[in-house]
Amino acid sequence: MEHSAFHPEDKARSLIDRQLLACGWLIQSKDELNLGAGIGVAVREFQTDSGPVDYGLFVGRKLCGVIEAKPAGTTLSGFAEQASRYIASVPKHLVRAEGQVRFEYVASGTETLFRDHADPDPASRRVFAFHRPETLERWLKEPATLRGRLQAMPPVITDGLRACQSDAISALEASMRQNRARALVQMATGAGKTFTACTLSYRLLAHAGFRRILFLADRANLVRQTRDEYLAFRPPGTGRSFSEIYNVQKLGAAGLDKDAQVVIATIQRVYSVLTGKELAEEEEEASSFETARADTERLVAYNPAIPIESFDLVITDECHRSIYGTWRQVLDYFDAFIVGLTATPALHTLGFFGRNLVAQYPFERSVVDGVNVGFDVFRIRTEIGERGSTVKSGYEIPVRDKRTRAQRYETLDADFTYTAAQLDRTVLATNQIRTVLDAYRNALFTELFPGRTEVPKTLIFAKDDHHAEEITTIVRDVFGKGNDFAKKITYKTDGADPEGLIRAFRNDYNPRIAVTVDMIATGTDIRPLEVVIFLRDVKSELYFEQMKGRGARIISPDKLREVTPDADAKTRFVLIDAVGVTESLKSVSQPLERQRAVSFDRLIDDIAAGRRDDDAFATLAGRLAALDRRIGDKDRAAIAKASGGLDLHGLASRLLDAIDPDVLATRVSPEAPEPEQQKVRDTAKDEAAAVFDDPALRRLLKEVKAAADIRIDTISVDAVVSSGWDEKKATDTIARFQRFLAERRDELTALQILYHLPYAQRRLTYEAVDELREALKRPPWLLEPPDIWRAYKRLAADKVRGTPAGTLADIVMLVRYAIGEAESLEPLSSLVAGRFNLWLGREEKAGRSYSDAQRNWLMAIRDHLAVNIEVRPEDLMEAPEFTARGGIIRARALFGARLPALLDEITDALVA
Questions:
Q1: Among residues 222, 365, 376, 232, which one has the least CA distance to residue 285?
Q2: CA geometry: angle 331, 334, 337, nearest 5 deg
């Protein structure tokens, strides 16, 4: 039957023809067959024993696959079996080897499914376009497919890997073996996600025959950091660095290096290379967490220079959720496995990865395992920070242009009131910043780090570059130090190399304090960091976790003392919350289909480009009205001149009138036919939007919005409302500990003894208390004794004395205090001296006195018990404090046959 030229299948074939040509294929009819014309030939209406298939694919003169075409909109998955039948019934004389005809495409011109019948358990997958003939030719020559090679991966070499890293690698490889296109790994910040990616990359390149891997980072400095980690990585068993084996490329404007096996980039750079649109390097410097907006989806077209098979694996590391929405088609472009690495898996991320969360390693577990350190929250509240302030009329205050930083003075002719929410955006209250920093300085060596004299490495998060500039100046003043002491580290650090400043902050004594917006917010490793101060709120939980994670990195005591000489060890970091960031509601995620807020700049551009929905008009009207209340007469005059006489109020009114039913009713009767009413509505919107056609006006409005002079309150005096440790975290820790004791008291030997249960053994042993410690560390409890001790101190400082030494004895004292056996909490070591003297007194009354040599031995036993709970005969043979005194032979010589009974008595006296 003849098909019309406009038949849907003909339209699909026309689209498929263009796609095949773009992918390097020649298209021929049966009558014009010339297999020598090129490496890849697609023959239309190719005849098989089951009838003609839409295209037969020849590579190097060999038939290797088929394409079954269907009209656009057709659900394709049901036609895969039809294409498979065509493959099974190709003319036998064209098949020279088993499995030669194996590549199956089902396509509609708008969607393409691909299946390689040589794969283990072959399954169709959606691809952006067709593979190039050179690729199919290479695949035909390989003894096994990529998915086949994944079935024979060697075991993971665990040397140099943490358990969480080897588990993640094994789980990812297992997911790929099951042909799961996407997989997600949750791994706490600081647990070594990049090292995990390096190890996985090497294994896939070396053992599974992957040709090229793309690693996507959030911003340019993380791209550089990741590149350096790949270059320095030494694959186990090779004796060489990764860069000696494989080429690593940082993707730039020049495009893809065909010889690179690992390419590291931002999603913006990949989009730029695919589309040919220019991207300035500075546009990659800011984090997507700071700049991401509700853009329309970034669409890409097929680029012959970068075919879909350019990468076999794409790794996304802590990327903003926009990568799975706005930029999603860039990810979908490549026929590759996709692996996501994140510390906080949000709903949108889980959705993109089909909830295939293959490995989890939460922050709490990383602290228990010693991969990260925990943190304490120190909350500072000030009067202005909580309630804002009012500057009375008549005062002269500075006003700064945020574009030029030029400053002028303005005399207030009315009271100027601002709220806490306006701080550091439209109002800069220098005394509020100073009050917070004064409180930090005053608490530094008393409450935060008692006994220390050096300011610990401190990172302050600011709202924007202007805010960071002010904070840096005030920090130097509050601490009475020079420029080297405190540095602003942002992308707008004039006259300095931000990367060099980060290195100095990480490795040198100075700077002690760094102020940043987002450059050190995610990914950047500053191991000596002991204090993180938030002078800005953060609404994204993922971003907040990333920012918090800057302080969580572990460091050896020796390395820490290289930059902070008076530090003993980094056992936790302090999060100083001056804005309620630990209390504010965080948006973990939003559904991908949710209509998100559009930026002011984007809204104006959208309306100028033809956007006409009511929500857009109402939103822009509201923002113009709000802006009108923030600008001065000079800007009002400039806007009126550029708009032909309309001020912001007039522009907003026109937009609202265009969607106001009452106003529209004066232009057309509600009884008029719907087409006539719609025409009037459309005309009203076009007329209201016409003023925004002028790019000069749009540019002016954006500049005024961006500038909106920031007023500087130097008048209001601020005072600390309260400062202290965060009680909520401490309360949660104690509650978890109490639940643990209640649920495990009948199961654990140490708890049976401490609760004096009737079936318990008589005395605590090292093994019993160690079993208790390990049970505390396991999920779901994830408790460490020093954290429990600090939590009790936060809530009842008058009853908690001393500092835990991290010994088994600390656990015993914690349990006794928690169950009411002790009225106060203090280390056993502070109690045993008194108990020991009382025991000696009782011994003397009983007629047993001890020589100096015996007393020295008894004191050594006392000190051993203060740490280890019990002392056994084998301890006298093995523990250094006893072997140095002659061991058990000397003890028996001193105490004779009474030694075993003596050990029991002194244990009961000091520990029971």
A1: 222
A2: 80
Beta bridge partners of 374: 572
Q: Is 752 helix (H, G, I), strand (E, B) or coil?
A: helix
Side chain identity at 88, as an amino acid letter?
A
As a whole number of Å, the CA-based R_g of the chain is: 35
Sheet hosting strand 357-361, strand order edge to edge: 248-250, 262-265, 213-216, 313-317, 337-342, 182-187, 357-361
Q: Running DSSP on this structure, what letter comes out for residue 35? A: T
Residue 619 has pLDDT above 50, yes or no: yes
Run of H or E including 265: strand 262-265
Q: Which two tokens stand for residue 154?
A: 């060697």
Q: Note if the bond before 780 is cis, omega within 30 degrees.
A: yes
Q: Which residues contact 132 (CB under 8 A, 6 or more apart)?
A: 23, 24, 40, 307, 309
Q: What is the pLDDT of residues 841-882, one digit of tens each?
A: 888 888 888 888 888 898 888 888 888 878 888 888 888 888
The two beta strands, 357-361 and 182-187, are parallel
Say what the pLDDT of residue 149 is: 97
Which residue is associated with the tokens 């523990």? 879
User: Residues of 402-437 as b/e, b for ≥16 C-beta within 10 angstroms?
Assistant: beeeeeeeeeeeeebebebebbbbebbbbbbbbbbb
Return the closest-CA partner of residue 516 out of 462, 576, 470, 581. 462
Q: Which residues contact 629 (CB under 8 A, 6 or more apart)?
A: none
Given this model, what pLDDT does residue 520 score? 64
Q: Summarize the confidence of residues 640-665 as an average pLDDT.
A: 85
Give the pLDDT confidence score for residue 220 in this predicted structure: 83
> What is the 8-class DSSP label of residue 129?
S
Dist CA 487 CA 528 (whole Å)? 16
Amino acid, single-letter form, for residue 288: S
E strand or H helix at 677, and its extent? helix 674-689
For residues 330, 331, 334, 336, the Cα torsion angle rounded to the nearest 10 degrees is: 170
Whose tokens are 């799961």? That residue is 180
Neighbours of 528 (CB within 10 A): 20
Average pLDDT, the chain: 84
- Residues near 788 by Cβ (< 8 Å), separated by ≥ 6? 733, 734, 737, 814
pLDDT digits (tens, 9 = 90+) for 237-269: 898 999 999 999 999 988 999 999 999 999 889
Closest CA to 750 of 787, 740, 833, 781: 740
Q: Among the residues of 782-878, which ranges form H helices?
A: 785-795, 808-818, 829-845, 852-868, 873-878
